[in-house]
Amino acid sequence: MLPKKISAFGIELKFLEKSDLPLLLLWRNQPSIRPFLDDPREISLPMLSFWYEKILRYKTCLPWLAYYNNTAVAYTEIKDMDPVNKSCAGGLFLFGEKYYGAGLSYRIVLCREIVMRALGLDTLYSHVCKDNGRSMDFCRQYGGELVGMKDGYNIFRYERDKREARLKFIAKAIRQDGDFEKFIERSAL
Fold first, then answer.
1. How far apart, in Å, are the Cα atoms of 136 and each of 53, 95, 156?
2. pLDDT tens for each residue of 73-94
3. C-alpha span between 40 and 60 (Å, rounded)
4. What residues are paired with 111 via a beta bridge?
C-alpha cells in the first residue's frame, strides 16, 4: 500500500483529499489553464466531486497535490495503470505562472517516480496539448519521445532507462543527488 504522503526532493506529495477539491477547482477553472486540459469546460464543485468519488471507487487514478515550502504548487497524477505492460500515464499541472521555470516540475516528477517504482511501472505516457509548447519542451527534457498524436494531443513515451538517466542528471542539477540515490536507485518508499 502506498503512503498518503511522500517527502523527497524538497517536495511533499499529499494524496488528494475531498477537502482539497475547492483549491483544485479554483486552479482548474482558470482561463489560462483550461485550454490545455482534456476537458476545457469550466466545471462546478459537484462535477469535480463526482470525478473524485469515481477515481476513488474504481481506483483509476492516483492523485496528489504537491507542496513546496508548505504551499500547494501543483497537481500530479498517475492514471491508466497497466500492470501487464508495466505502463501508466501521468499528468502534472502547476498552480500558476509564478511556479514556471522554478524547477518544481522536475522535483515533482522525481517524487512521482518513487511511486512508479513501488508499483512496478516502467513506461510512462504523457498526453500534451499540441499548443502547449512549454509542456512539450519539458517532456523532451525529461526524456520523453514523441510517439504519436491523438485528438489534438501529442503523446510522449518515457522508457525507464532513458527517464532514469535524465532524472539522475536533473537531481544532480538541483542538488538532490542524495534523495535520488535513496529513493530512485535503491527504490525505497
1. 31, 18, 9
2. 999 999 999 999 999 999 999 9
3. 21
4. none
